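Model it.
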Amino acid sequence: MSTRSVPSIRDVTRLDWPGWLPLWDGYNAFYGRSDETALPVEITNATWERFFDAREPVHALIAEDGAGRIVGLVHYLFHRSTISIADTCYLQDLFTLAESRGTGVGRALIAAVCERAKAAGSARVYWHTQETNGAAMRLYDKVAERSGFIVYRAQL
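Modeled.
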């Protein structure tokens, strides 16, 4: 994909499974969830099904290049907040093919989530990344502000 071409962003459809799954697997591998630590297939299947359940707050968009090849994905969800009446939008997963990085795919996916969040009445979109993900952070620093928060988690 040329750096000048603008990717097409759209909602995922059931027909996108063959193109979505390799990106989902690539995303999970990037974050160390492969081989022995891979997500169980049940989680992948449940995640996929949530995109098509109107009762779920989880959504997915894909980016296509000019040839119609899926080159990126983003998953986001809406949730309540104690500091806002409107729901907040959490951009949970963002991944592009390696050859598409730096071409505007990630930026376009983030912008599309922000557009959908604004249309849904959200006042804020937020996301996390690993502190070692320098390439992503260079983009994120251009399109958003760092919150200053550090994320903690307790496995249960």
